[in-house]
Design brief:
- The protein is built from eleven helices and no strands.
- The chain is mainly alpha-helical and 217 residues long.
- The longest helix is centred in the middle third of the chain and has 20 residues.
- It is globular, with a radius of gyration of 21 Å.
């Protein structure tokens, strides 16, 4: 029924299909549509837009909360507005965030105890293991890009400088390995009864060099 309608639409109708996963759209649908790809917004444009929304809607949002909203949005206007809505509903103040710097410091020091404590603290804040792992991987990606292509990092200048410093301390090779190990854990978490355990194992693995890539060694 959809294909027939797309092929012979009523004159007064225009269909707009939107998705963040275009690869999942069937070929029969794709062949009958015109494709327009939208890209992430530069940080300065997104910040200007967020501030306009705040002023237009009469919201009271702190500067720290604005920075947090922009970081969570990662260049996506939709995700940024969703984060802004949640921030406004929570009072407009920055929420207590997971200390990703603490986790990175544990990786630099090869300190398993420090890493596990940081994970436990995040769990107490209400984070689930998969969401926390995604946040860590996103942060590691920013670290890697800060070394290879800083212009691609969607972060305020002061945060970019801090991320670059962390990346230099950890090193590009270790950053890539951490992303790989945590990425594999994210896949396994889909069917794991206790995702937190997988994250903790990954933290121990990444902070214990002698384990290498084989926990049985």
């Amino acid at each position: 029924a959809l294909l027939k309608t797309l092929e012979e639409p009523p004159e007064h109708v225009v269909f707009v299909l939107a998705t963040t996963d275009p690869q999942k759209v069937s070929d029969t649908i794709r062949s009958r549509t015109q494709h327009l790809q939208f890209h992430l917004l530069p940080l300065d444009e997104l910040e200007a837009y967020v501030r306009w929304v705040i002023e237009d809607a009469g919201l009271k949002i702190s500067e720290d909360a604005i920075a947090q909203v922009l970081q969570q949005g990662a260049g996506s206007a939709r995700d940024t507005l969703s984060a802004l809505e949640l921030s406004a509903a929570a009072g407009g103040e920055a929420e207590e965030s997971v200390s990703l710097e603490e986790i990175v410091a544990a990786l630099v020091e090869h300190n398993s105890g420090r890493a596990l404590t940081a994970v436990a603290h995040a769990m107490h804040q209400g984070r689930d293991a998969r969401t926390l792992t995604e946040e860590i991987v996103r942060h590691l990606r920013d670290m890697f890009l800060s070394l290879q292509a800083p212009e691609l990092v969607q972060l305020p200048e002061r945060m970019l400088q801090r991320v670059s410093e962390q990346a230099r301390l950890l090193g590009a090779v270790s950053v890539v390995r951490a992303m790989t190990v945590l990425g594999e854990s994210m896949v396994e978490m889909r069917h794991a009864p206790d995702p937190r355990l997988l994250l903790e194992v990954s933290m121990v693995k990444l902070t214990t060099p002698e384990l290498g890539d084989d926990l049985n060694s």
